[in-house]
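wait is this the right file?? whatever heres the structure
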């Protein structure tokens, strides 16, 4: 299914996988819509059709359930990144694949992206530190490798730090995800790019790629 042992008790692994998925899907929705502080364990238990006592047999704390929900929620995103970055395609082809996939996932699984957005605004330092490691380390490594591979092949200019470049590319892609799933970001996106931007995927993708390409390839390769 996905790596989960770090945040759950052994009893959680002993229940059927469908029941695990149901509990986590309900938890993802509760945390995404209510935030960590306002999320209610009783509500999660009721909607998942388990007792509160059972939840605490599966997870020591609300924090562990939240972190497990995050891990469950980002599994699909991790898979997309890994498959695209592992391909032999050119850097810009990989980036286009990521943008298209993120837009599709954001539309199809809005609640997961909303959970991701909620994670980025979490004020609990202990949770933030764990989440940053949980979400960002794999993404950072994947994007950095893509930049470094591009520098070695000559696709990307060598006078920029791959870590900084990966960070900035990730910020753009993260905003793309939020813009297709979260109300505030969607309104903001329309203000900047036009009310019909959600129906103009190719236009949006081409312009995002043109912007990234201009930064990564430099002045000698402005024409695309």
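ok assuming it is, sequence goes like this
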């Amino acid at each position: 299914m996905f790596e989960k042992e770090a945040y759950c008790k052994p009893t959680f692994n002993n229940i059927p996988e469908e029941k695990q998925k149901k509990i986590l899907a309900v938890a993802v929705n509760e945390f995404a819509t209510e935030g960590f502080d306002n999320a209610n364990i009783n509500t999660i238990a009721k909607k998942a059709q388990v007792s509160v006592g059972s939840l605490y047999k599966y997870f020591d704390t609300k924090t562990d359930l939240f972190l497990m929900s995050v891990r469950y929620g980002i599994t699909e995103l991790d898979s997309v990144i890994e498959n695209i970055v592992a391909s032999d395609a050119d850097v810009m082809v990989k980036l286009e694949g990521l943008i298209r996939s993120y837009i599709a996932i954001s539309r199809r699984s809005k609640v997961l992206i909303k959970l991701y957005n909620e994670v980025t605004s979490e004020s609990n330092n202990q949770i933030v530190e764990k989440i940053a490691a949980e979400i960002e380390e794999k993404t950072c490594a994947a994007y950095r490798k893509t930049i470094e591979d591009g520098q070695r092949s000559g696709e990307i200019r060598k006078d920029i730090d791959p870590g900084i470049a990966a960070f900035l590319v990730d910020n753009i892609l993260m905003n793309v995800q939020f813009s297709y799933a979260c109300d505030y970001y969607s309104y903001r996106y329309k203000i900047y790019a036009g009310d019909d931007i959600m129906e103009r995927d190719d236009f949006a993708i081409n312009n995002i790629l043109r912007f990234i390409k201009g930064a990564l390839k430099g002045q000698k390769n402005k024409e695309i």
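DSSP finds eleven helices and no strands in the chain. so i think its the right one actually
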